[in-house]
Request: fold
Amino acid sequence: MALLEIRHLDITFLDKKKPQKIVEDLHLTIEAGDMIGLVGESGSGKTMSALAVAGLLRQKNVQISGEILLDGKNLLTCSPQELRQLQGSEISMIFQEPMTSLNPTRTIGWQVEESLRLHTNLTPEERKARAMEALHDVELSDAERIYHAYPHALSGGQRQRVMIAAAMICRPKLLLADEPTTALDVTVQKQMIALLQKMNQTYGTAVLFISHDLALVRSLCSKMVVLQQGRAVEAGDAEEIFTSPRQLYTKELLAAVPKFERQPCQRLQTDAPTVLQVSDLCAYYPKESKRLFQKKEQKEVLHNITFSIKKGEIIGLVGESGCGKSTLARSILGLHRDYIGEIRHCTEHPQIVFQDAGSSLNPAKTVDWILQEPLRNCTQLTPGQRKDCVTEMLWLVKLDESLRSRYPWQLSGGQRQRVCIAASLMLHPEFLIADEPVSALDVTVQKQILALMQEIVRETGVSILLISHDLRVVYQMCDRVLVMKDGSIVEAGAAEEIYQDPQHDYTKKLLESAGY
Reply:
């Protein structure tokens, strides 16, 4: 008997005038110890299928039919009480967005131990020991501090590793991993893949691995299923599909995967004006204090950062989670002011494109309102003029004007990211920070967004500081690269020089982890 068998699965949303079928006639079999990849574009039904297996889609406006059999038991006919006994112990799930999945009011230790409280009779001391072991398993240094910390005190990569630790702590039979490495840098991705393989081989945990990173699927999974608009268009041996895809859609997906290749770039003129100059920047955070009224000491997190960006230049910033990339971006934009050194802007209205487009857009406002907001705050334009500016910007980012009346939750991931880019360009800035702008997007939408950003640079001359853990994207996009480790720039130079002849051991390690 298969561990998990999905038969004729249909998922239909009933929250609109016309029912919308998200998954149609899906068949999938997972044996104990299998590692199966589930790939496809945004909206193809990958996450919805996983949520149905996890029992998290039982809503009045969702209709599910077919069978989902776990060890022969149909999960679609189980009572809520039976499902709760299986969730966390037999089936566990790693969610894509850890910040919205973790409880902001509870410590990390409390959340990692939650499955143990529900499904075991361990004492508090035994639960903590298991939690500390799980945190060490996912390569979290300073596990004691993290155990007592809250989610907001961790980096994105650290939060994602906490999610993995919490999901694996009960050693479930089936692990549903929904984009588990999206927020992680290449070295930690490699560690997480090794950890999933270890759990699979040691405990026989079967893994359904959902990802838009096809290279990761190829390295991890023996089998894969390709979804297109809710239907499985191709399934079988992963290596065979990668080397000899049969369906046109699969071929298009594989062709869109970023590679270590770049177009010959036009060298910037040496006399191009400087738009940003950072000199001897040291940034600080207060150290945590156990005593309420004890004076907090300062912890230096950035050490003597110095670099500049010229007009029309794209600079890549790479490094592991927690190395200081986001703190540097926040300091540059004035969102973190506890620093010494010099940050000199030679332009007005520097902007940022955030990693998570869904949470950075106001869900209660339309696209038109969101795009007009910078103009209302910083210009004297009339409503008619603002409307014309929005029309022009929608054309620039290749969004249909009919979308201006929609809300963010009515858009796809790629459309939301284009809205974020449009909002950042409304005041025609000459300098832009792009913080992981494509990490959460599937490969075909990634390709579109990256091409769009390059076109915007050509047409507007905007300079971009591109923060990314995807070294292929950085190689394609950037003129120069800054490599950051533990708050310091350890190597900097032209992209071709950094990739073809890295000097620092850490840079070599990053490139090796990325498969360069």
Observations:
- The mean pLDDT is 87.
- The two ends are 41 Å apart (CA to CA).
